C-alpha cells in the first residue's frame, strides 16, 4: 500500500517534471531560453525541486539497497525518529543563516541529512553484529565499503569547509565543517566497534576485555565530541549568534560523556575491588552448590568471584555488570559502599550468609579472659560491677568493626537487666565470698550472620562462663557445708551448755545427797568414770560428734571436783 | 564466538520451551534473530482481562542481560500501566540507573537476575492488579479508579477483539 503510494508519487513528480520541461521547450523552442524560463518561473522551479527531492530519496533507497539490503524494523524506527530531530534542527539552523539562504544552501543541508542517516544506519547495523548468530561475508563487505565511503566523504567535506573558511572567511561552511567533523568521529566510533565485534566473533572463547575497550572508546569519543561542540558553539557565538540548533546534540554529547566518565571511574573501582578483595571460589565449592551464574545462566567451573554478600558469579560476567552498575545483581548490595571483607580470612565459610564485611561482632573475644571476674566481686548486686564497663569499652575499642553496628557489638557485655532482677530475689542477705558470675552473653539476634570462627569464639566464651559458674557453685557448696557444720557446733554447744547446767545442778544435788547416800554417789562417779574414757577418744567422725566430746570434757571436770570432795569426805570421815 | 547475550537468550528460550509457565508462550520471531521475541499472554482468571490472549513483542538490547528488554503489546490495550502504543511500563523493565517517573526504588528495577519469564509473569500480575499510581495511560488509570464498570467493559471488548469474536 505504502509502496504503491511511493511509486505513484515518484511517477507523478516525473510526469510533472516532463510537463514543466515540455511546456518550457514548447514556449521557447530552444534549450537556453527554456532553461531561463524554467528558472524564472516559480511553479516550474517548485516542480523541479520536488523532482530533486524525489531523486535524492530514490538515490537513498538505491544506496540503502547496496549497503544494507533490507532494513530491519528497529533500524527503520530509529531512522525515522532521528530524522525528525535532525530536520527540526536543520530548520533552526536556517534561521541563523537566513541571509545566505539559497537553493545551494538547502541542497547542502539535505546532503548533510542524507549522509547523517547513513551514519545512523551504519551504527545500528554494526550494533546488530552482536546480536546475530551468523554474519555473512556480504555483511562484512557492505559495512567495510560503507565505512570507507562515509569516512572519505566526511573527510572531503571537512577539508572543503576548512578551505572555504580559510580563504573566504566565516560562512555557513563553518556549520558543515563541524557537522562533518562530528560525523567523522561517528564513523571512527563505528569502525572501532566493527573491529571489536569482528575480533569477538572470530574468537573461540568469550572476550571479556571487549567491554572494557568499548567503555574507554565511548569515553574518548565522548570527550572529542564535547570538545568539538564547545569549540563550535564558541566560534558560532563569535561570528553569528547562539547556535540553538546545536544545543540538543551538544547536551546529549555532554551527558553521554559524563556518563561514560562516571562509568569508567566507578567500574574501575568496582573491578579493582573485585580483583583484589573478593575471594575466588574454588572448584570444589562450586560443584557442591547450585553453580549456575545468574548473569549468563551458564555453569561456573572456574574464574568465579564471591561478593561480600556471598553471591557468586563469573568474574567476566561481574566485570561487565560492574561497568554499568556497581551493585550485586542478586541483592543489589552496593559494592562500593560496602567495606570489603578482611584479607586475613580469604575463605569465608558458607554459613556466613550475610555480609561478612559488617562488624565482626565478637561478643567474647580472647581479651574477655581478663574479664573473668576478679575475686570478691558481687555479681548479684543489681548494678554492674564497675570493672565490667571499661572492659566492654575495651573490647569495643579493640574491635574496630564493633562501633559500626551497635546492635550487635556489645552483645556479650550487656545482658538484659532482667537477669539481675531475677537474681535479686535470691540475693542472700549477707555477702558471699566467691567467684562472681559473668553475666550470660545474650545471643546475637541472627546467628547466621556469624562466621564459624566467631561462633567458636562465642562458644569458648560461654564455656568459660559456665566453668566460672561451676567453680562458683562449688565454692558455695563448700561454704554451705562449713556453715552447716558451724551451725551444728553452735547447736551442740548450746545443748551441752544446757546439759552442763543440768549436770551441775544434778552434781550439786548429788553432793547434797552424797552426805546421805555415799554408795550411790560412788556409783554415779564410777558410771561417769566409765563414760569419760569413752568420750576422751578422738572422734573419727567430724563435728556432729563434737557436742558429746565437749560435754564429756566438762563431765571429767565435774568428776575431778567430785573426787576431790569425796576424798575430803573420806578424810573427814576418818 | 557469538556474544554472551545471544547465549543467554538461547538458554532462556530453551528453559521457556521445556518448562513453560502457565498462560505464557514466548520465543524469537525467527531463529535468525534472537533479539526480537514474540510473546502471547493470557489474561489472568478472575480479572476483567480473563480469557484474552494478548500478543506482545519483546526487543532485547545487544548487552542483554545487563540492560532490560523493551516490551510492547501488539494488540490494542487499555490499561493504566500500558501506553496507548502498547509499550509496557513496569519497574523491572527500567534500567537500574535512570528513573523516568521518579517513584521507583532501585530494588524493583532491572538486574541480570530477572528473565523473560519473570517479566512476563510480572506483566500478568500487572494485568490483574494495575498500579494506578504511575499512569502510563492516564485515561485508563482515571477510569480504573473512578469508573470500574466502564473500565471492565472496555477490557472485555479488548478481550473479545483479541479472540476475534465480534463485539
UniProtKB/TrEMBL annotation, chain A:
User: Disordered: where is this region?
Assistant: 339-421, 507-574
**Keywords assigned by UniProt?**
Endoplasmic reticulum, Membrane, Metal-binding, Transferase, Transmembrane, Transmembrane helix, Ubl conjugation pathway, Zinc, Zinc-finger
**Does the entry feature the keyword Cytoplasm, yes or no?**
no
Q: Which GO terms describe its cellular component?
A: endoplasmic reticulum membrane
Write down the EC number: 2.3.2.27
Give any GO molecular function from the UniProt entry.
ubiquitin protein ligase activity
Q: Where is the composition biased (Pro residues)?
A: 372-388
Q: Domain (RING-type): give its ranges.
A: 293-332
Enumerate the InterPro entries for this protein.
Answer: HRD1_E3_ubiq-ligases (IPR050731), TPR_SYVN1_N (IPR057992), Znf_RING (IPR001841), Znf_RING/FYVE/PHD (IPR013083), Znf_RING_synoviolin (IPR058051)
Q: In which pathway does it act?
A: Protein modification; protein ubiquitination
Q: Where is the composition biased (Low complexity)?
A: 339-354, 389-412, 524-556
Which enzyme class? transferase
Q: Which residues cross the membrane?
A: 7-26, 46-63, 142-162, 174-196, 216-240
Its GO biological process annotations read: ERAD pathway; proteasome-mediated ubiquitin-dependent protein catabolic process
Q: How does it sit in the membrane?
A: Multi-pass membrane protein
Q: Where in the cell is it found?
A: Endoplasmic reticulum membrane
Keyword Protein biosynthesis attributed: no
Which segments show compositional bias classed as Basic and acidic residues?
A: 559-574
Give the similarity note. Belongs to the HRD1 family.
Q: Which PANTHER family match?
A: E3 UBIQUITIN-PROTEIN LIGASE SYNOVIOLIN, RING ZINC FINGER PROTEIN
Kindly provide the name given to this protein in its UniProt entry. RING-type E3 ubiquitin transferase
Give the originating organism.
Bemisia tabaci (Sweetpotato whitefly)
UniProtKB/TrEMBL annotation, chain B:
| UniProt xrefs under InterPro entries | Ub_conjugating_enzyme, UBC, UBQ-conjugating_AS, UBQ-conjugating_enzyme/RWD
The protein's superkingdom reads Eukaryota
GO BP terms in the entry: ERAD pathway
Q: Which UniProt keywords apply?
A: ATP-binding, Nucleotide-binding, Transferase, Ubl conjugation pathway
A Pfam match: UQ_con
GO MF terms listed in the record are: ATP binding; ubiquitin conjugating enzyme activity
EC number(s) on record? 2.3.2.23
Q: Which residues form the active site?
A: 89
Q: Which residues form the UBC core domain?
A: 4-164
Keyword Transferase belongs to the record: yes
Catalytic activity annotated for this protein?
A: S-ubiquitinyl-[E1 ubiquitin-activating enzyme]-L-cysteine + [E2 ubiquitin-conjugating enzyme]-L-cysteine = [E1 ubiquitin-activating enzyme]-L-cysteine + S-ubiquitinyl-[E2 ubiquitin-conjugating enzyme]-L-cysteine
Q: How does it assemble?
A: Interacts with AUP1 (via C-terminus); the interaction recruits UBE2G2 to lipid droplets. Interacts with ubiquitin ligases AMFR/gp78 and RNF139/TRC8; recruitment to lipid droplets by AUP1 facilitates interaction of UBE2G2 with AMFR and RNF139, leading to sterol-induced ubiquitination of 3-hydroxy-3-methylglutaryl coenzyme A reductase and its subsequent proteasomal degradation.
* Function description: Accepts ubiquitin from the E1 complex and catalyzes its covalent attachment to other proteins. In vitro catalyzes 'Lys-48'-linked polyubiquitination. Involved in endoplasmic reticulum-associated degradation (ERAD). Required for sterol-induced ubiquitination of 3-hydroxy-3-methylglutaryl coenzyme A reductase and its subsequent proteasomal degradation.
Q: Which family does it belong to?
A: Belongs to the ubiquitin-conjugating enzyme family.
Q: What is this protein called?
A: Ubiquitin-conjugating enzyme E2 G2
Species this chain originates from:
Bemisia tabaci (Sweetpotato whitefly)
Upper lineage is: Eukaryota, Metazoa, Ecdysozoa, Arthropoda, Hexapoda
Amino acid at each position: 500500500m505504502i509502496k504503491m503510494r511511493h511509486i505513484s508519487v515518484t511517477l507523478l513528480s516525473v510526469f510533472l517534471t516532463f510537463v514543466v520541461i515540455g511546456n518550457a521547450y514548447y514556449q521557447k523552442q530552444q534549450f537556453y531560453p527554456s532553461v531561463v524560463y524554467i528558472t524564472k518561473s516559480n511553479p516550474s522551479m517548485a516542480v523541479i525541486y520536488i523532482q530533486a527531492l524525489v531523486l535524492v530519496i530514490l538515490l537513498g533507497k538505491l544506496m540503502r539497497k547496496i549497503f544494507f539490503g533490507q532494513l530491519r524494523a528497529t533500524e527503520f524506527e530509529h531512522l525515522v525518529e532521528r530524522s525528525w530531530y535532525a530536520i527540526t534542527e536543520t530548520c533552526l539552523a536556517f534561521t541563523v543563516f537566513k541571509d545566505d539562504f539559497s537553493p545551494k544552501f538547502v541542497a547542502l543541508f539535505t546532503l548533510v541529512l542524507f549522509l547523517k542517516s547513513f551514519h545512523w544506519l551504519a551504527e545500528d547495523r554494526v550494533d546488530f553484529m552482536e546480536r546475530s548468530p551468523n554474519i555473512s561475508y556480504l555483511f562484512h563487505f557492505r559495512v567495510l565499503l560503507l565505512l570507507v565511503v562515509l569516512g572519505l566523504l566526511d573527510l572531503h567535506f571537512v577539508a572543503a569547509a576548512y578551505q572555504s573558511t580559510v580563504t573566504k572567511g566565516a560562512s555557513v561552511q563553518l556549520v558543515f565543517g563541524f557537522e562533518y567533523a562530528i560525523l567523522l568521529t561517528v564513523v571512527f566510533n563505528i569502525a572501532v566497534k566493527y573491529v571489536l565485534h569482528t575480533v569477538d566473533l572470530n574468537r573461540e572463547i568469550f572476550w571479556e576485555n571487549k567491554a572494557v575497550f568499548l567503555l574507554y572508546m565511548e569515553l574518548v569519543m565522548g570527550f572529542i565530541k564535547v570538545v568539538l561542540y564547545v569549540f563550535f558553539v564558541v566560534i558560532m557565538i563569535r561570528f553569528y549568534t547562539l547556535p540553538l540548533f546545536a544545543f540538543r546534540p551538544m547536551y546529549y554529547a555532554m551527558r553521554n560523556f559524563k556518563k561514560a566518565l562516571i562509568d569508567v571511574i566507578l567500574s574501575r573501582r568496582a573491578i579493582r575491588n573485585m580483583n583484589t578483595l573478593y575471594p575466588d571460589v574454588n572448584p570444589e565449592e562450586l560443584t557442591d552448590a547450585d553453580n549456575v551464574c545468574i548473569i549468563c545462566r551458564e555453569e561456573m567451573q572456574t574464574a568465579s568471584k564471591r561478593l561480600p554478600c556471598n553471591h557468586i558469579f563469573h568474574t567476566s560476567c561481574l566485570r561487565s555488570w560492574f561497568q554499568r552498575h556497581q551493585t550485586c545483581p542478586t541483592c543489589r548490595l552496593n559494592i562500593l559502599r560496602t567495606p570489603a571483607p578482611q584479607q586475613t580470612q580469604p575463605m569465608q565459610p558458607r554459613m556466613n550468609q550475610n555480609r561478612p564485611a559488617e562488624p565482626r561482632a565478637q561478643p567474647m573475644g580472647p581479651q574477655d579472659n581478663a574479664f573473668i571476674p576478679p575475686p570478691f566481686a558481687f555479681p548479684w548486686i543489681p548494678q554492674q560491677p564497675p570493672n565490667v564497663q571499661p572492659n566492654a569499652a575495651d573490647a569495643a575499642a579493640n574491635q574496630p568493626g564493633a562501633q559500626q553496628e551497635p546492635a550487635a557489638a556489645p552483645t556479650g557485655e550487656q545482658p538484659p537487666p532482667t537477669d539481675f532482677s531475677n537474681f535479686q530475689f535470691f540475693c542472700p542477705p549477707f555477702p558471699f565470698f566467691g567467684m562472681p558470675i559473668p553475666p550470660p552473653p545474650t545471643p546475637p539476634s541472627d546467628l547466621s550472620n556469624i562466621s564459624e570462627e566467631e561462633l567458636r569464639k562465642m562458644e569458648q566464651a560461654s564455656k568459660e562462663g559456665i566453668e566460672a559458674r561451676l567453680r562458683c557453685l562449688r565454692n558455695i557448696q563448700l561454704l554451705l557445708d562449713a556453715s552447716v557444720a558451724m551451725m551444728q557446733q553452735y547447736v551442740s554447744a548450746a545443748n551441752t551448755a544446757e546439759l552442763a547446767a543440768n549436770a551441775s545442778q544434778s552434781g550439786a544435788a548429788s553432793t547434797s545427797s552424797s552426805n546421805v547416800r555415799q554408795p550411790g554417789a560412788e556409783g554415779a562417779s564410777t558410771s561417769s568414770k566409765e563414760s569419760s574414757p569413752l568420750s576422751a577418744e578422738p572422734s573419727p567422725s567430724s563435728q556432729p560428734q563434737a557436742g558429746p566430746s565437749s560435754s564429756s570434757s566438762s563431765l571429767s571436770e565435774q568428776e575431778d571436783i567430785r573426787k576431790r570432795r569425796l576424798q575430803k569426805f573420806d578424810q573427814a570421815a576418818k | 564466538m557469538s556474544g554472551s547475550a545471544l547465549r543467554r537468550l538461547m538458554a532462556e528460550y530453551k528453559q521457556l520451551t521445556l518448562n513453560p509457565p502457565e498462560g505464557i508462550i514466548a520465543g524469537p520471531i525467527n531463529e535468525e534473530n534472537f533479539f526480537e521475541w514474540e510473546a502471547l499472554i493470557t489474561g489472568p482468571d478472575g480479572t476483567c482481562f480473563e480469557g484474552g490472549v494478548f500478543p506482545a513483542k519483546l526487543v532485547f538490547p545487544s548487552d542483554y542481560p545487563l540492560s532490560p528488554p523493551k516490551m510492547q503489546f501488539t494488540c490494542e490495550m487499555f490499561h493504566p500501566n500500558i501506553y496507548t502504543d502498547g509499550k509496557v511500563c513496569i519497574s523491572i523493565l527500567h534500567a537500574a540507573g535512570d528513573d523516568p517517573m521518579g517513584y521507583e526504588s532501585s530494588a524493583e528495577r532491572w538486574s541480570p537476575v530477572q528473565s523473560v519469564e519473570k517479566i512476563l509473569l510480572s506483566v500478568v500480575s500487572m494485568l490483574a492488579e494495575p498500579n494506578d499510581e504511575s499512569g502510563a495511560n492516564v485515561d485508563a488509570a482515571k477510569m480504573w479508579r473512578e469508573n470500574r464498570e466502564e473500565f471492565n467493559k472496555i477490557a472485555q471488548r479488548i478481550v473479545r477483539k483479541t479472540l476475534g469474536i465480534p463485539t
